Amino acid sequence: MAYKYANRQEEFLAKLKGKTGKISDKTHEEHLKLYTGYVNKSNAILELIEKLGTPDPADPAVANQIYSTVRNYKVDFTFALGGVKNHELYFSSLGGDGKVSGKIAELIDRDFGSFDNYKKDLKATGIAARGWVWTGYDSQTGKLFNYIGDAQNTYPVWGVTPVLALDVYEHAYYADFFTARAGYIDEFINHIDWTAVNALLPKA
């Protein structure tokens, strides 16, 4: 294959062990099995695309917007790869002491008015989302915003760099919090690795 996505499961397990409070190590272990599935499936779809060779756009079985090989591979690839990238951002966002500092702190104060306002908005966005929440930096406006994504590949916004991801699918918290999503989000915020978030901000 021209490119193969690496499985960072062991790296994330080592980073997070004992560092996320009530979000247990066991939950991360199980959660990372799902991430591994996304890595494997992304690579498998890429292999299928490679085996397809140069597609014939005149053949409706190969390229058709209703049902075709190219459509199936390409759509499912965005879902699988979204699962890789979303989870890598999520696990990178965790394992810190929750104390915001650096450039991200300045941007949060500027764009949300205060860190408390940011936390409230992030939490409300997490309660409203069906799958994902991202804090993103919009290169056009130069501002931060909390975005909703209901699945691995829904609602990407062009020109926005996601710098923090919050997974609100039940598998991310149910074993530790049952249906108390709000409590899980509070615990997530308490253990954000803001150094990792700062590292993802676009350079001015």
Sum up the structure in keywords.
single chain; 204 residues; mainly alpha; 8 helices
Number of domains: 2
**Percentage of residues assigned to helices:** 40-55%
Radius of gyration: 18 Å
CATH topology category name of the largest domain? minor pseudopilin epsh fold
> How far apart are the first and last residues' alpha carbons, in Å?
35 Å
Strand order of the largest sheet: 2-1-3
| SSE run | HHHHHEEEHHH
Summarize the main sheet: 3 strands, antiparallel
Question: What are the low-pLDDT stretches, counting only 5+ consecutive residues below 50?
Answer: none
| CATH homologous group name of the largest domain | Iron/manganese superoxide dismutase, C-terminal domain
CATH architecture of the largest domain: 3-Layer(bab) Sandwich
Strand composition percent: 5-15%
List the helices and strands and how they pair.
Blueprint: H1 9-16, H2 25-52, H3 69-93, H4 103-112, H5 115-128, E1 132-138, E2 143-149, E3 160-167, H6 174-177, H7 181-190, H8 194-200
Please tell me about this protein's structure.
- The chain has helices at 9-16, 25-52, 69-93, 103-112, 115-128, 174-177, 181-190, 194-200; strands at residues 132-138, 143-149, 160-167.
- It has 204 residues and is mainly alpha-helical.
- The longest helix is centred in the N-terminal third of the chain and has 28 residues, at 25-52.
- The chain has two domains: 24-93; 103-200, minor pseudopilin epsh fold (3-Layer(bab) Sandwich).
- The protein is built from eight helices and three strands.
- It has a three-stranded antiparallel sheet with strand order 2-1-3.
- The radius of gyration is 18 Å and the shape is globular.
- Helix 2 (25-52) runs antiparallel to helix 3.
- Strand 1 and strand 2 form a beta hairpin.
